[in-house]
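User: I want to check something. If I give you two sequences, will you return the structure for each one separately, not as a complex?

Assistant: Yes, each is folded on its own. Here is the first sequence with its structure:
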Amino acid sequence: MENALVFVYGTLRKHQRNHYLLKDSKQISEQAWTYGELFDTGNGYPMMKKSNSEKVFGELYEVNQKQLALLDELEGYKVGRNDNLYERDIQTIYTDNGESSAYLYLSERACATAIASGDWKIYQLLKQKPEKVLYFAYGSCMDVERFHKANVGHFFETVIGAATLENYSMKYLYAASDGGRGDIIEDSGITEGILYETPFEAVNYLFKREGYLIGMYRATFVDVQINDKVYKDVLTFHVYDKKEELAPPEHYAIEILRGSRNRVSDAYYKKLVKQLRELNVSFELTDWE
């Protein structure tokens, strides 16, 4: 039989405890979403219900029939059985590269705690409140002057180093009133940025700065690399509602170049400059070139 696409949103996600069941599968997208509502079962895993307006965030994988059978077993699903823990259904899944129909596991059993973010990993972060949080800053977020102006520079004093995010490109896909803003999009590209170790208190500042609660940028987790070391499930932000790439204003371009100069690789810095020029952004580089 043919392979199938499966959308996962809980303990099957990357670095979660049941992800081993997907270790030989093909990841299609780690920034996928679908319409639904997420709940905490209170048993260490979430449950998803149907919704026409709320969103659930997760990952999309291609699996073979043997792997699908293992997922069915984990989710307590059997074809034709009346008392399944979860039902396997098909829904439209949305990614940076388009839409796909995929299997996912739903339940209509009663659950008391709704997960407002629609993201199991973000929910865990906010619930557990770890003492330290790894944060990947890219684009204008590399500019430390903005931290100091907001009186939060002390949150970002521990710099682990310049990090590389593979299979993502930085583009200007958020449309503000005066032009584009930086975003990461899943593709075959590479994005460089700065990896920080921050106190948990910095998360509230970052959520506010990125407009998380009003739907501008969404908090998510990625793996980044410094030399040969991989840092897993690092907090970063990307755009909810991506638009066609739009030239950013000069002041924003300057923030990006000021924040990245002598911090990311020379090749990546030059790529940022070239990208801005190709978008016909007018700016002076005498202070940085």
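And separately, the second sequence with its own structure:
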Amino acid sequence: MTIVYALIARGKAVLAEFTATAGNFPTVTRVLLNKIPTEATRMSYVWDAHVFHYIVENGVTYLCMADEQSRRRVPFAFLEDIKTKFGAQYGASIHTAPAFSMNAEFAPILQRQMDAFNSNPPGDSLQGVRSQIEDVRAGMLENVDKVLERGEKIELLVDKTDQLNQQAFRFDRASRSLRRTMYWRKVKTGVAAAGVAVILMFAAGATACGGVTFSHCRS
């Protein structure tokens, strides 16, 4: 499961966003922001091999894009997490702040949480949205073409190379960790075997030399 893009907007005014890979996500999301209702809701839009998930609360849209194979529980848990952090950090100023005024401060938080949920989503966050997401029906998952009018369709461009590089990096990191674990396991096994060999040699020598004092051998 990979979340590659996140955005927070008040109406059409984008307050903060972050993308983990190259693509035209900002262009696509600007079109979607014109179609997303302002009343509280949560929904998912399919666009090619990706899905845009969003939550609207108090006129603020929290949106992310993930690959189509992703289960919705993780993206929505991510959105709930950044919604809580964004509200706690900015409070009422969210409703008056100029566009991108929070981007410098909050984009790194979006990146950090995106990395966290992509690699190891917190269990408590998933549990917190489980009951909300398990009841999501097909009506809440629409093809984005249905909300766009003629002439508005934009091809979603995703840099597959960046995505493959990210996946390769995660695989390489896991491989290095596994190699380190196997190396230290071999070291511990070798040390234990050497210890046993020393003990056996000592016992054999003591037996042949008349006990632990090696009295027969010294004489």
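Because they were folded independently, the notes below concern the second chain alone. The first helix runs from residue 25 to 33. Confidence is low (pLDDT under 50) at residues 133-139, 148-154, 156-164.
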